[in-house]
Amino acid sequence: MTFPRLSRICVAAATAALASGIALAAPALPQYNIDTSKISVSGLSSGGFMANQLGVAFSSTFMGVGVFAAGPYMCAGHNNYTACMYNATISASQQTTMQNSLNSFSSAGTIDNKSHIANQKIYIFTGTSDTTVGPNQTTALQTQYLNNGVPSGSISYVQRASTAHVFPTDFDSTGNNSCTSATSPYISNCGYDGAKAALAHFYGVLNARNNAPATSNYIEFDQSAYTASNPGMATNGWLYVPASCASGAQCKLHVALHGCQQSTDKIGDRFVKNTGYSRWADTNNIIVLFPQAKVDNTSRSTAASGSLPNPNACWDWVGWYGSNFARKAGTQMAAIKAMVDRVASGPGSGNGGGGNNPPATLPAPTGVSTSGATASSMAINWSAVTGAASYNVYRNTNKVNALPVTGTSFTDTGLAASTTYSWTVRAADANGAEGATSAAASGTTLAGSGGGTATCTTASNYAHVQAGRAYQQGGYAYANGSAQNMGLWNVFVTKTLKQTGPNYYVIGTCP
Q1: Which of 168, 315, 486, 498 could hold 46 in an S-S bridge, CB 3.0 to 4.6 Å?
Q2: One-letter-per-residue 3-state SS of 391-452
């Protein structure tokens, strides 16, 4: 339940406390009445790559994806990140490799079923003078969407002349750089309203914007509750909430992701306030979530780019924080999705479209249990809930079913062998509004084909391919099943592969 007036009082009190030198923790992320069929995401540069990743991995959640100056899904999962920037050309074989990963992840359930991608509205923007990422990358992204069934009419692809690597607006803000210069804060008056273009493509004709959104509508919240202590995410995030949404009207939700060197620890609140998102959100019943990355100077092993630090507070599109960085279980991916779920969990939320849905009152499913364990899957069962139209299954708090479950059982796949997981279930009504969460049921997957424990093999990438544990494509070796990039296919690069299921290998070690 939300208390908008109380929230504003708390914000005012916090402002007064800060003025007097008293440090207060940011409030918890509020909940609102969200039309869950109208959730979209966009971002610039690393935020554009992350927007694409979120749109692919959670394609049943995001109906619209906006990518400003970024390339295709899993580009840096298979190539050195420099091959995904600097206007590098993406070859047909690289497209195939990236698509193979997307297909594999979809089949394994580590992303939503790829069939949802075809239903999305896609907005892509690049500047013809952008030498940081460049048109070759955005063109490759467009090709990837077309290859996954998105109709050409659902893709708006804008190439803007005399525009560098910046977020484009049509108004001046203090401290902004020239449209032709890729310098901080990477926000420019280019005579083109990028925020409007993206939001209008997702939601249709918009009401005239408010050029002076109320300061009290910006809410700084405690983001750390969702980040699992990820070293690349800030303690606090930001939210813009129009007064109508704070008063209980059903609203749309948009996630806006900053680029490298645009986090609050780099440029303050400029991305939050100077990009134009809040101006359009204020008059169109759109809540805007602004998650925040942060500087991480620790050098970390990446998927295909060696060991790198993250000094520019980029979103994870290269694998700093795990090989699953582009999948649902990726730390930053799961954190942003959890924030979306929190915002969209207020009374009335669901696919109602009218704002008159009653609060969800369905009870929690009972009798939740696990059965039928294999090395990579588990069946979850529960008792029917009266009045439920469908059910959603959550593994370790992350939703795992791409489509609503209409029965009372679900098989979760793509699991690791010899691993204990926890599942909960929520019933949903005909509008998609969820009821209470069930008690958790735990289960442990069986050991891999190696017997009582997982089997690990350390060998050269050439030997792995010869033995059938991996395959080669484009001069690189990829683990069977997981499609993880192991590096160059030769006798000089050595990797340890852990078998977690029949013909399914991941890069790792055995305990």
Answers
A1: 315
A2: EEEEECCEECCCCCECCCEEEEECCCCCCEEEEEEEEECCCCCEEEECCCEEEECCCCCCCC
**What is the rounded average pLDDT of the residues 186-209?**
97
Q: Shortest CA distance to 1 belongs to which of 27, 28, 32, 35?
A: 32
Q: Which of 130, 193, 282, 429 is catalytic?
A: 130
Q: Is the pLDDT of residue 319 over 80?
A: yes
Torsion of CA 241, 244, 248, 252, to 10 degrees: -60
Provide φ and ψ at 324, rounded to 5°. Answer: -95, 25
* CB count in 10 Å sphere of residue 444: 14
Q: What is the pLDDT of residues 288-307, one digit of tens each?
A: 999 999 999 999 999 999 99
Q: What is the pTM of this model?
A: 0.69
Could you tell me if 172 and 125 are in contact, meaning their C-beta atoms sit under 8 angstroms apart?
no
Active site residue 130: yes
Torsion of CA 449, 450, 453, 456, to 10 degrees: -110
Catalytic residue list contains 269: no
User: Other CB atoms closer than 10 Å to residue 375's CB: what's the count?
Assistant: 21
- CA separation (Å) from 424 to 120, 364, 382, 394? 28, 9, 10, 5
- Alpha-carbon radius of gyration of the chain: 23
| Percent of the chain topping pLDDT 90 | 66
- Residue 416 CA to residue 454 CA, distance in Å, equals 10
Q: What are phi and psi of 469, to 5 degrees?
A: -85, -15
Going from the C-alpha of 498 to that of each of 104, 319, 477, 481, 484, the distances in angstroms are 17, 19, 15, 11, 12
Task: Give the confidence band of 50 by pLDDT, cuts at 50, 70, 90.
Answer: very high
Select which of 35, 40, 42, 45 is catalytic. Answer: 45
Nearest Cα neighbor of 238 from 482, 470, 94, 30 is: 30
Pairing assessment for the beta strands 64-68 and 121-127 based on DSSP bridges: parallel
Contacts of 58 (CB under 8 A, 6+ apart): 111, 112, 328, 333, 337
What tokens does 46 get?
């690393």
Could you confirm whether 222 is annotated as catalytic?
A: no
